[in-house]
Amino acid sequence: MSRAEQAVRRIERAEGIDVLADRVRAGAQDALVAPPGLDRLLGGDWLGHRVHPVAAQVPLGAWLMATLLDVTGSEKHAAAVDALLLTGCLSALPTAITGAHDLATTSGSETRVALVHAIAMDATLALFVTALVKRRRGDRRTARRLALAGTALAGAGAYLGGHLVFRMGVGVER
Known about the structure:
By secondary structure, the protein is mainly alpha-helical. Helix content is 78%, strand content 0%. It has one domain (3-167).
C-alpha cells in the first residue's frame, strides 16, 4: 500500500473529526439536497452523473495553466496568468457548491475523507486568491510561490476526490 493510500486510510478511521464532519454534512444536506430542484440540479440528474467532477476541471485546469505560464518567468504571459488565476478562483465557487452537495450524500468514513478533501480544496482556493492579489500588487515572486503551493495542495485534494469516487464509490450508481 502506498504512503498516500495509508494516509487516506488514516483519514477514513479518524473518528475525532466526526462532530465537525457530521455538522458540515447536515448543513449541506439541509441547504443543497433537501430542496428537490436544487438536489436534481447540483446532483447532475440533467447530466447523467455527478456535476462536481466535471466542474472541478475548470478551476484546476485554469490554475495549472496559470502556474505553468508563470514559472516560465516571461512577462509576456502576465495578462494570461492573471486571467487564468481569476477564472480558476471564480469557477471554484460553483465547484465547491457541487462538492458540498456530494459531501451531503456521504456517511461515516466517506464523510471524513470528503471533509478533508473540501478543506484541502478550500485552502487551495485561498492560496490562489492570495496569489492573484499579490500579482495585482506587483509581488509576482510571492504570487508564483503561492501558486506552486496551491498546485501541490490541489493535487493532494484531487487525490482524495479520486479516492472518494474510485475506492469508496461516492456518487457511483451501481
